[in-house]
Amino acid sequence: MTEPSSSPMGRLDAFDIGSKKLTVQTEFLSRPAWRFETKVYLGGELKKVYTEDVAEMAESELQRELNEFHQKKMDEIVEGLRRKQQQ
Question: Are the C-beta atoms of 85 and 30 separated by less than 8 Å?
Answer without folding.
Answer: no
